Amino acid sequence: MIKKYLLVADCAIEFDNKLLVIERAAQCVNGGKLCFPGGKVEGQDENTAYDHDMLRFAARREVREEVGIDLTEPLRYITSVFFTGSQGYDIIAILFHCQLSKYRQPQASPREVAQALWMTRQQIENAENAPDWFKKYASQV
Question: At the topology level of CATH, where does 6-136 sit?
Fold first, then answer.
């Protein structure tokens, strides 16, 4: 039997030695917790990834949807991890990094994001609502 996974593409966006972090909206999975913008890879990513790189396309789309930033800079692969999500799905999460060439103000989507914050790695490490897995993610960027 072939095992099925839910693919997630996340992006650590950096500017001026700070990372763009979101606090998930209360009604979302992991509500109130910090993470990088990102989300599920969807069928539209397969159909519209003109450069045949659907994972990066998905990360860019999710960033645009969650924080209103269009990423034009290159996305660098950092790592991938496997875990079983809180709803029982087996998940493969892929983390990319994007170094912004100029500052862009995030516009948090209220449906998914309670707030968007620029944080240093030390602030992430000290944040009470940053899960251990997220702290590890941030330390790899």
Answer: Nucleoside Triphosphate Pyrophosphohydrolase (3.90.79)
